[in-house]
Amino acid sequence: MKKYIVISLDRFRESAEIISRAIDGDVAGYSKDAFKEAFDCYEGIIAVMSAGIAVRNIAPLLNDKWTDPPVVVVSPDMKYAVPVTGGHHGGNEIAKMLTGLGIEPVITTATESMNRDSVENYARRNNLEILNKDSTRRVNAEILDGNVPCYLLNEPAMAVVSPEVSVLLSTGRYIVGIGCRRGVSADEVISAIRKALNIAGIDKKDVLAYSTTVLKRDEAGLTEAVRTLSGNLVFVSDEEINDECPESDSRAYDKVGLKGVAEPSALSLSKSKKIILKKQIFGRVTIAVIE
């Protein structure tokens, strides 16, 4: 399976073949299910057809810009490449890949069209993952108005930031949510995390971050455990936790007004919101793993 696919009307098949060779992609003829099938299998879609046809087909499929494949429309005359979705998430990059064919990329994302960087592009270029994705709206808006500082923190370090500061971490796939009883020790937390990762079949190096509730900010054993594992611990707000829909029941609502801790805190930071390991209890620690 290749990363990209070119979908075209029959009369533009030759153009689609030229594009596919340039980007090492697959080719498919246009049909009512072509986009639906491509959405599940490819990292990027190029449509050689009118923008109207492409937009009407992808509209029912759009779910989340962070997980949907970018869609780039190439005009039938092979003059222009227009990212219609996912410009910051690979669409602009795909359009620029076609310049060697004499196709002009039409970039409409505000930062790039003003010759400025975006949080998403910086992250992609440096192989980083944006932890708090909603922050990019405000940060990108500020980038348009002037320079936004970028700070590098080397471990060991602790960072306390507002929700409108983008946090970029070394790429990982999984969020490990942690709930614990008051006064838990670091050894208890580390043991629980290792057991959970072992059950899930996940290596520690593939963990992007560990999450819990802000109510645990003073839990020394939890903080020490994540520091020992060289991990990133994120304290999630009550509002963000209660915005999620965890699959597992929790008694946290009756105690502290939360839908839970381990599962919903991890869901709030995850990209795909795919539950790999529902919350499990290990002594005085509760662990959930989300992709």
Automatic annotation (TrEMBL):
Annotated CobE/GbiG C-terminal domain residues: 175-289
Domain of life: Archaea
Every Cobalamin synthesis G N-terminal domain range: 34-112
Alphabetical list of InterPro entries matching this protein: CbiG_hydrolase (IPR052553), CbiG_N (IPR021744), CobE/GbiG_C (IPR002750), CobE/GbiG_C_sf (IPR036518), GbiG_N_sf (IPR038029)
UniProt GO BP: cobalamin biosynthetic process
NCBIfam families linked to this entry: PRK05788.1-3
Protein name: Cobalamin (Vitamin B12) biosynthesis CbiG protein
